[in-house]
Write a structure and sequence with these properties.
heterodimer; A: alpha+beta; Phosphorylase Kinase, domain 1; seven-stranded antiparallel β-sheet; three-stranded antiparallel β-sheet; 6 helices; 12 strands; extended; B: mainly alpha; Rna Polymerase Sigma Factor, Chain: A; Arc Repressor Mutant, subunit A; 2 domains; 0% strand
Chain lengths: 234, 189
Amino acid sequence: MINPEIDNQIFDSILTEALKNRSKIYLSNIPSEDELSKELEFSDGFKDKMNKLMESYKRMAARKKVFIYTKKFVACILIVAGLGFGVLMLSQPVRAAIQNVIIQWFDKYTQFDFKSDSTEVEFKEYTLGYLPEGFVETDYFSADGYTSVEYRDLKGNDIIFDYAISENITIALDNEHSTYSVISLNGSEAHLFESNEEGSRSHLLWEDNGYTFKITALLNAEEIIKIAENIKIK
Amino acid sequence: MLIYLSLIDTKEEKDKFVEIYNLYKYTMLYVAKSIVKDHSMAEDVVHDSFLKIIEIIDKINDISCSKTKSLIVTIVRNKSIDYIRKIKKESNIALDEVEFSLQDDEPIPLDKLINEEGYNKLLEYIDELDEKYRSVIELKYIHGYSEKEISKILDITEKNANIRIYRARKMLVNKIEGEEACYDKSGDR
Protein backbone atom coordinates (compact mmCIF):
# COMPACT_ATOMS: atom_id res chain seq x y z
CA MET A 1 0.00 0.00 0.00
CA ILE A 2 1.55 3.28 -1.13
CA ASN A 3 -1.13 5.67 -0.01
CA PRO A 4 -4.75 4.67 0.66
CA GLU A 5 -6.09 7.56 -1.38
CA ILE A 6 -3.91 6.77 -4.38
CA ASP A 7 -4.74 3.06 -4.01
CA ASN A 8 -8.42 3.94 -4.09
CA GLN A 9 -7.98 6.03 -7.21
CA ILE A 10 -6.06 3.24 -8.95
CA PHE A 11 -8.70 0.69 -7.90
CA ASP A 12 -11.47 2.96 -9.19
CA SER A 13 -9.68 3.30 -12.54
CA ILE A 14 -9.29 -0.47 -12.87
CA LEU A 15 -12.88 -1.01 -11.77
CA THR A 16 -14.16 1.56 -14.29
CA GLU A 17 -12.23 -0.17 -17.07
CA ALA A 18 -13.51 -3.59 -15.99
CA LEU A 19 -17.11 -2.37 -15.80
CA LYS A 20 -16.87 -0.79 -19.24
CA ASN A 21 -15.46 -3.99 -20.71
CA ARG A 22 -18.08 -6.12 -19.01
CA SER A 23 -20.85 -3.83 -20.21
CA LYS A 24 -19.47 -3.96 -23.76
CA ILE A 25 -19.47 -7.77 -23.66
CA TYR A 26 -22.96 -7.88 -22.13
CA LEU A 27 -24.42 -5.49 -24.72
CA SER A 28 -22.74 -7.29 -27.61
CA ASN A 29 -24.49 -10.49 -26.53
CA ILE A 30 -27.92 -8.91 -26.94
CA PRO A 31 -29.22 -9.53 -30.48
CA SER A 32 -29.77 -6.43 -32.62
CA GLU A 33 -33.13 -4.63 -32.70
CA ASP A 34 -33.68 -5.94 -36.23
CA GLU A 35 -33.13 -9.53 -35.17
CA LEU A 36 -35.28 -9.09 -32.07
CA SER A 37 -38.10 -7.47 -34.05
CA LYS A 38 -38.41 -10.74 -35.98
CA GLU A 39 -38.59 -12.80 -32.80
CA LEU A 40 -40.57 -10.58 -30.45
CA GLU A 41 -43.89 -8.92 -30.84
CA PHE A 42 -45.63 -6.37 -28.66
CA SER A 43 -49.24 -6.91 -27.74
CA ASP A 44 -51.92 -4.48 -28.88
CA GLY A 45 -52.46 -3.56 -25.23
CA PHE A 46 -48.85 -2.50 -24.90
CA LYS A 47 -48.95 -0.50 -28.13
CA ASP A 48 -52.10 1.28 -26.93
CA LYS A 49 -50.46 2.09 -23.61
CA MET A 50 -47.35 3.47 -25.28
CA ASN A 51 -49.39 5.52 -27.74
CA LYS A 52 -51.33 7.00 -24.84
CA LEU A 53 -48.09 7.77 -23.04
CA MET A 54 -46.70 9.57 -26.08
CA GLU A 55 -49.94 11.46 -26.66
CA SER A 56 -50.03 12.44 -23.02
CA TYR A 57 -46.57 13.94 -23.33
CA LYS A 58 -47.43 15.83 -26.45
CA ARG A 59 -50.42 17.38 -24.68
CA MET A 60 -48.27 18.16 -21.65
CA ALA A 61 -45.71 19.93 -23.79
CA ALA A 62 -48.36 21.94 -25.59
CA ARG A 63 -50.02 22.89 -22.32
CA LYS A 64 -46.72 23.86 -20.82
CA LYS A 65 -46.00 26.36 -23.55
CA VAL A 66 -48.97 28.42 -22.42
CA PHE A 67 -47.48 29.31 -19.08
CA ILE A 68 -43.87 28.25 -18.81
CA TYR A 69 -41.02 30.26 -20.16
CA THR A 70 -37.38 29.31 -19.94
CA LYS A 71 -35.14 31.13 -17.53
CA LYS A 72 -32.95 32.22 -20.40
CA PHE A 73 -35.80 34.01 -22.11
CA VAL A 74 -36.90 35.68 -18.91
CA ALA A 75 -33.38 36.84 -18.14
CA CYS A 76 -33.37 38.83 -21.39
CA ILE A 77 -36.63 40.52 -20.51
CA LEU A 78 -35.47 41.30 -16.98
CA ILE A 79 -32.80 43.63 -18.34
CA VAL A 80 -35.43 45.64 -20.20
CA ALA A 81 -38.01 45.52 -17.43
CA GLY A 82 -35.61 45.98 -14.53
CA LEU A 83 -36.77 49.44 -13.55
CA GLY A 84 -40.43 48.58 -13.62
CA PHE A 85 -39.74 45.50 -11.57
CA GLY A 86 -37.84 47.53 -8.98
CA VAL A 87 -40.81 49.81 -8.49
CA LEU A 88 -43.13 46.87 -8.32
CA MET A 89 -41.10 45.18 -5.58
CA LEU A 90 -42.22 47.98 -3.27
CA SER A 91 -45.89 47.26 -3.77
CA GLN A 92 -47.81 45.46 -1.04
CA PRO A 93 -48.79 42.16 -2.76
CA VAL A 94 -45.24 41.40 -3.81
CA ARG A 95 -43.66 42.26 -0.48
CA ALA A 96 -46.23 40.24 1.41
CA ALA A 97 -45.51 37.13 -0.59
CA ILE A 98 -41.76 37.46 -0.90
CA GLN A 99 -40.89 34.79 1.67
CA ASN A 100 -41.95 31.95 -0.55
CA VAL A 101 -42.38 33.39 -3.98
CA ILE A 102 -40.85 36.15 -6.04
CA ILE A 103 -43.38 37.71 -8.38
CA GLN A 104 -42.25 39.64 -11.41
CA TRP A 105 -44.63 41.53 -13.66
CA PHE A 106 -43.99 41.93 -17.32
CA ASP A 107 -46.02 43.36 -20.16
CA LYS A 108 -47.78 40.18 -21.12
CA TYR A 109 -47.21 37.79 -18.28
CA THR A 110 -46.45 37.51 -14.61
CA GLN A 111 -43.65 35.28 -13.47
CA PHE A 112 -43.65 33.40 -10.17
CA ASP A 113 -40.41 31.95 -8.81
CA PHE A 114 -41.28 29.57 -6.01
CA LYS A 115 -38.60 28.58 -3.55
CA SER A 116 -38.75 26.02 -0.81
CA ASP A 117 -36.67 26.32 2.34
CA SER A 118 -36.39 22.58 2.58
CA THR A 119 -35.28 20.25 -0.19
CA GLU A 120 -36.63 17.24 1.72
CA VAL A 121 -40.33 17.57 0.97
CA GLU A 122 -42.13 14.27 1.23
CA PHE A 123 -43.88 13.32 -2.00
CA LYS A 124 -47.64 13.38 -1.62
CA GLU A 125 -50.43 12.77 -4.06
CA TYR A 126 -53.33 15.19 -4.12
CA THR A 127 -56.76 14.95 -5.65
CA LEU A 128 -59.75 17.20 -6.15
CA GLY A 129 -62.39 16.76 -3.47
CA TYR A 130 -64.85 18.83 -5.48
CA LEU A 131 -65.46 18.72 -9.21
CA PRO A 132 -68.17 20.64 -11.06
CA GLU A 133 -70.88 18.42 -12.46
CA GLY A 134 -70.07 16.52 -15.63
CA PHE A 135 -66.29 16.57 -15.28
CA VAL A 136 -64.30 13.33 -15.16
CA GLU A 137 -60.58 12.62 -15.02
CA THR A 138 -59.28 12.15 -18.56
CA ASP A 139 -55.53 12.41 -18.24
CA TYR A 140 -53.00 11.89 -15.49
CA PHE A 141 -49.29 12.36 -15.49
CA SER A 142 -46.82 12.22 -12.62
CA ALA A 143 -43.04 12.21 -12.58
CA ASP A 144 -40.14 13.81 -10.81
CA GLY A 145 -42.22 15.46 -8.08
CA TYR A 146 -44.60 17.01 -10.59
CA THR A 147 -48.17 15.88 -11.25
CA SER A 148 -50.74 17.08 -13.75
CA VAL A 149 -54.31 15.87 -13.89
CA GLU A 150 -56.79 16.84 -16.56
CA TYR A 151 -60.57 16.66 -16.19
CA ARG A 152 -63.03 17.14 -19.03
CA ASP A 153 -66.75 17.36 -19.47
CA LEU A 154 -68.76 16.16 -22.47
CA LYS A 155 -68.55 19.62 -24.09
CA GLY A 156 -64.76 19.36 -24.08
CA ASN A 157 -64.20 21.98 -21.35
CA ASP A 158 -61.21 21.15 -19.23
CA ILE A 159 -59.91 21.68 -15.73
CA ILE A 160 -56.19 21.25 -15.31
CA PHE A 161 -54.84 20.57 -11.85
CA ASP A 162 -51.04 20.83 -11.60
CA TYR A 163 -48.90 20.51 -8.51
CA ALA A 164 -45.21 20.14 -7.84
CA ILE A 165 -42.75 20.29 -5.00
CA SER A 166 -41.82 23.96 -4.60
CA GLU A 167 -38.18 23.55 -5.36
CA ASN A 168 -37.07 26.19 -7.83
CA ILE A 169 -40.24 26.32 -9.86
CA THR A 170 -40.86 29.07 -12.36
CA ILE A 171 -44.36 29.66 -13.65
CA ALA A 172 -45.44 32.43 -15.98
CA LEU A 173 -49.11 33.30 -16.39
CA ASP A 174 -50.79 35.47 -18.97
CA ASN A 175 -51.74 38.81 -17.39
CA GLU A 176 -52.82 40.52 -20.59
CA HIS A 177 -56.25 38.96 -20.74
CA SER A 178 -56.98 38.57 -17.05
CA THR A 179 -57.52 40.49 -13.85
CA TYR A 180 -55.14 39.73 -11.03
CA SER A 181 -56.09 39.55 -7.38
CA VAL A 182 -54.70 38.02 -4.22
CA ILE A 183 -57.20 35.92 -2.33
CA SER A 184 -57.15 33.92 0.87
CA LEU A 185 -57.38 30.19 0.36
CA ASN A 186 -57.64 27.96 3.43
CA GLY A 187 -55.40 30.42 5.27
CA SER A 188 -52.84 30.68 2.48
CA GLU A 189 -52.34 33.47 0.00
CA ALA A 190 -53.39 32.54 -3.52
CA HIS A 191 -52.95 34.37 -6.82
CA LEU A 192 -56.03 34.54 -9.00
CA PHE A 193 -55.84 35.46 -12.68
CA GLU A 194 -59.46 35.77 -13.64
CA SER A 195 -59.96 35.76 -17.35
CA ASN A 196 -61.63 38.83 -18.82
CA GLU A 197 -61.81 37.47 -22.34
CA GLU A 198 -64.34 34.96 -23.57
CA GLY A 199 -62.87 31.54 -24.23
CA SER A 200 -59.77 32.27 -22.16
CA ARG A 201 -59.01 30.24 -19.04
CA SER A 202 -58.57 31.56 -15.52
CA HIS A 203 -55.74 30.45 -13.24
CA LEU A 204 -55.41 30.09 -9.52
CA LEU A 205 -51.93 29.58 -8.13
CA TRP A 206 -50.81 29.03 -4.55
CA GLU A 207 -48.16 27.45 -2.38
CA ASP A 208 -48.86 25.24 0.59
CA ASN A 209 -46.72 22.87 2.67
CA GLY A 210 -43.80 22.85 0.26
CA TYR A 211 -46.01 22.30 -2.78
CA THR A 212 -47.05 24.67 -5.54
CA PHE A 213 -50.57 24.16 -6.88
CA LYS A 214 -52.28 25.53 -9.94
CA ILE A 215 -55.78 25.19 -11.27
CA THR A 216 -56.55 26.28 -14.77
CA ALA A 217 -60.11 26.22 -16.08
CA LEU A 218 -62.72 27.94 -18.17
CA LEU A 219 -64.87 28.49 -15.10
CA ASN A 220 -65.84 31.48 -13.01
CA ALA A 221 -63.62 32.47 -10.08
CA GLU A 222 -66.05 31.17 -7.42
CA GLU A 223 -66.04 27.71 -8.95
CA ILE A 224 -62.25 27.61 -9.30
CA ILE A 225 -61.81 28.73 -5.68
CA LYS A 226 -64.28 26.07 -4.55
CA ILE A 227 -62.23 23.42 -6.37
CA ALA A 228 -59.03 24.73 -4.80
CA GLU A 229 -60.52 24.80 -1.30
CA ASN A 230 -61.42 21.15 -1.57
CA ILE A 231 -58.09 19.72 -2.63
CA LYS A 232 -57.11 16.79 -0.45
CA ILE A 233 -54.31 14.27 -0.05
CA LYS A 234 -55.06 11.07 -1.95
CA MET B 1 -32.36 26.35 -12.76
CA LEU B 2 -34.73 23.46 -12.91
CA ILE B 3 -38.19 24.20 -14.18
CA TYR B 4 -40.33 21.41 -12.88
CA LEU B 5 -43.45 22.14 -14.82
CA SER B 6 -41.77 21.05 -17.98
CA LEU B 7 -40.95 17.46 -18.55
CA ILE B 8 -40.60 16.97 -22.20
CA ASP B 9 -39.73 20.52 -22.92
CA THR B 10 -38.83 20.87 -26.54
CA LYS B 11 -39.58 19.25 -29.85
CA GLU B 12 -36.11 17.74 -29.72
CA GLU B 13 -36.95 16.06 -26.43
CA LYS B 14 -40.25 14.78 -27.74
CA ASP B 15 -38.43 13.41 -30.76
CA LYS B 16 -35.78 11.99 -28.48
CA PHE B 17 -38.38 10.00 -26.61
CA VAL B 18 -39.88 8.58 -29.81
CA GLU B 19 -36.41 7.83 -31.12
CA ILE B 20 -35.46 5.94 -27.97
CA TYR B 21 -38.69 3.99 -28.24
CA ASN B 22 -38.04 3.08 -31.86
CA LEU B 23 -34.41 2.24 -31.30
CA TYR B 24 -34.56 0.19 -28.12
CA LYS B 25 -38.05 -1.18 -27.57
CA TYR B 26 -37.21 -4.74 -28.62
CA THR B 27 -33.92 -4.71 -26.73
CA MET B 28 -35.82 -3.57 -23.67
CA LEU B 29 -38.43 -6.29 -24.11
CA TYR B 30 -35.69 -8.88 -24.60
CA VAL B 31 -33.83 -7.83 -21.43
CA ALA B 32 -37.03 -7.64 -19.37
CA LYS B 33 -38.21 -11.02 -20.63
CA SER B 34 -34.88 -12.64 -19.84
CA ILE B 35 -35.41 -11.64 -16.20
CA VAL B 36 -39.16 -11.82 -15.55
CA LYS B 37 -39.67 -14.78 -17.93
CA ASP B 38 -43.17 -13.71 -18.94
CA HIS B 39 -44.09 -11.71 -22.02
CA SER B 40 -46.94 -9.74 -20.51
CA MET B 41 -44.96 -8.87 -17.38
CA ALA B 42 -42.00 -7.93 -19.56
CA GLU B 43 -44.22 -5.47 -21.43
CA ASP B 44 -45.25 -3.89 -18.13
CA VAL B 45 -41.58 -3.57 -17.23
CA VAL B 46 -40.82 -1.90 -20.58
CA HIS B 47 -43.66 0.57 -20.03
CA ASP B 48 -42.44 1.39 -16.51
CA SER B 49 -38.92 1.75 -17.85
CA PHE B 50 -40.13 4.30 -20.40
CA LEU B 51 -41.73 6.32 -17.61
CA LYS B 52 -38.35 6.36 -15.89
CA ILE B 53 -36.53 7.26 -19.12
CA ILE B 54 -38.85 10.23 -19.58
CA GLU B 55 -37.92 11.46 -16.11
CA ILE B 56 -34.24 11.44 -16.95
CA ILE B 57 -34.46 12.24 -20.65
CA ASP B 58 -32.34 15.35 -20.24
CA LYS B 59 -29.43 13.13 -19.22
CA ILE B 60 -29.55 11.31 -22.54
CA ASN B 61 -27.66 13.03 -25.31
CA ASP B 62 -26.48 10.68 -28.01
CA ILE B 63 -29.33 8.20 -28.39
CA SER B 64 -27.55 5.63 -30.47
CA CYS B 65 -24.30 5.42 -28.49
CA SER B 66 -23.50 2.32 -26.44
CA LYS B 67 -23.53 4.37 -23.23
CA THR B 68 -27.20 5.19 -23.76
CA LYS B 69 -27.95 1.56 -24.55
CA SER B 70 -26.14 0.54 -21.38
CA LEU B 71 -28.14 3.07 -19.32
CA ILE B 72 -31.44 1.90 -20.79
CA VAL B 73 -30.57 -1.75 -20.19
CA THR B 74 -29.63 -0.92 -16.58
CA ILE B 75 -32.99 0.75 -16.07
CA VAL B 76 -34.85 -2.22 -17.57
CA ARG B 77 -32.90 -4.75 -15.48
CA ASN B 78 -33.69 -2.83 -12.31
CA LYS B 79 -37.33 -2.39 -13.19
CA SER B 80 -37.53 -6.14 -13.91
CA ILE B 81 -36.09 -6.97 -10.53
CA ASP B 82 -38.42 -4.48 -8.85
CA TYR B 83 -41.28 -6.20 -10.63
CA ILE B 84 -40.25 -9.65 -9.44
CA ARG B 85 -39.79 -8.31 -5.90
CA LYS B 86 -43.24 -6.77 -6.01
CA ILE B 87 -44.78 -10.03 -7.14
CA LYS B 88 -42.95 -12.09 -4.57
CA LYS B 89 -43.77 -9.45 -1.97
CA GLU B 90 -40.38 -9.83 -0.46
CA SER B 91 -40.01 -7.89 2.75
CA ASN B 92 -36.84 -5.95 2.73
CA ILE B 93 -35.18 -4.17 5.60
CA ALA B 94 -34.72 -0.53 4.79
CA LEU B 95 -31.03 0.14 4.74
CA ASP B 96 -31.74 3.66 5.88
CA GLU B 97 -32.41 2.19 9.27
CA VAL B 98 -29.33 0.03 9.36
CA GLU B 99 -26.35 1.45 11.12
CA PHE B 100 -23.45 1.21 8.77
CA SER B 101 -20.07 2.80 8.91
CA LEU B 102 -18.54 3.90 5.66
CA GLN B 103 -15.26 4.74 7.27
CA ASP B 104 -13.62 1.36 7.84
CA ASP B 105 -11.31 1.55 4.86
CA GLU B 106 -9.11 -1.46 4.35
CA PRO B 107 -6.06 -1.71 2.16
CA ILE B 108 -6.89 -2.52 -1.47
CA PRO B 109 -5.00 -5.55 -2.82
CA LEU B 110 -3.83 -3.80 -5.98
CA ASP B 111 -0.99 -6.28 -6.41
CA LYS B 112 -3.63 -8.96 -7.15
CA LEU B 113 -5.25 -6.82 -9.82
CA ILE B 114 -2.40 -5.62 -11.93
CA ASN B 115 -1.93 -8.85 -13.86
CA GLU B 116 -4.29 -10.30 -16.47
CA GLU B 117 -5.46 -13.10 -14.24
CA GLY B 118 -6.40 -10.67 -11.49
CA TYR B 119 -8.22 -8.41 -13.92
CA ASN B 120 -10.20 -11.37 -15.32
CA LYS B 121 -11.07 -12.39 -11.78
CA LEU B 122 -12.39 -8.88 -11.19
CA LEU B 123 -14.65 -9.26 -14.24
CA GLU B 124 -15.93 -12.54 -12.79
CA TYR B 125 -16.55 -10.95 -9.40
CA ILE B 126 -18.48 -8.10 -11.04
CA ASP B 127 -20.62 -10.75 -12.76
CA GLU B 128 -21.27 -12.42 -9.43
CA LEU B 129 -22.50 -9.22 -7.80
CA ASP B 130 -26.19 -8.91 -7.11
CA GLU B 131 -27.85 -6.73 -9.76
CA LYS B 132 -28.65 -3.97 -7.26
CA TYR B 133 -24.96 -3.57 -6.46
CA ARG B 134 -23.74 -3.94 -10.02
CA SER B 135 -26.20 -1.28 -11.27
CA VAL B 136 -25.00 1.41 -8.88
CA ILE B 137 -21.35 0.96 -9.71
CA GLU B 138 -22.13 0.84 -13.43
CA LEU B 139 -24.04 4.11 -13.14
CA LYS B 140 -21.28 5.66 -11.08
CA TYR B 141 -18.19 4.41 -12.89
CA ILE B 142 -19.38 3.99 -16.48
CA HIS B 143 -21.81 6.88 -16.66
CA GLY B 144 -20.28 9.15 -14.04
CA TYR B 145 -23.58 9.85 -12.28
CA SER B 146 -23.65 11.36 -8.81
CA GLU B 147 -25.31 9.49 -5.96
CA LYS B 148 -28.25 11.87 -6.21
CA GLU B 149 -28.67 11.09 -9.89
CA ILE B 150 -28.30 7.35 -9.25
CA SER B 151 -30.96 7.51 -6.56
CA LYS B 152 -33.33 9.12 -9.05
CA ILE B 153 -32.64 6.59 -11.79
CA LEU B 154 -33.07 3.58 -9.50
CA ASP B 155 -35.84 4.97 -7.29
CA ILE B 156 -33.81 4.55 -4.12
CA THR B 157 -32.71 7.07 -1.54
CA GLU B 158 -29.45 8.94 -1.95
CA LYS B 159 -28.18 7.30 1.21
CA ASN B 160 -28.96 3.84 -0.14
CA ALA B 161 -27.17 4.67 -3.37
CA ASN B 162 -24.17 5.68 -1.29
CA ILE B 163 -24.35 2.50 0.78
CA ARG B 164 -24.77 0.26 -2.24
CA ILE B 165 -21.74 1.79 -3.94
CA TYR B 166 -19.72 1.32 -0.79
CA ARG B 167 -20.87 -2.27 -0.38
CA ALA B 168 -20.35 -3.20 -4.02
CA ARG B 169 -16.82 -1.87 -3.89
CA LYS B 170 -16.16 -3.53 -0.56
CA MET B 171 -17.48 -6.89 -1.79
CA LEU B 172 -15.17 -6.74 -4.79
CA VAL B 173 -12.19 -5.85 -2.63
CA ASN B 174 -13.04 -8.69 -0.24
CA LYS B 175 -13.36 -11.17 -3.08
CA ILE B 176 -10.03 -10.13 -4.49
CA GLU B 177 -8.58 -10.64 -1.03
CA GLY B 178 -10.21 -14.06 -0.93
CA GLU B 179 -12.74 -13.20 1.71
CA GLU B 180 -16.47 -13.61 1.46
CA ALA B 181 -18.60 -10.58 2.06
CA CYS B 182 -20.69 -11.28 5.11
CA TYR B 183 -23.30 -8.55 4.90
CA ASP B 184 -24.93 -9.23 1.62
CA LYS B 185 -28.17 -10.74 2.88
CA SER B 186 -30.29 -7.76 3.75
CA GLY B 187 -32.35 -6.11 1.09
CA ASP B 188 -32.69 -2.43 0.70
CA ARG B 189 -34.86 0.17 -0.93
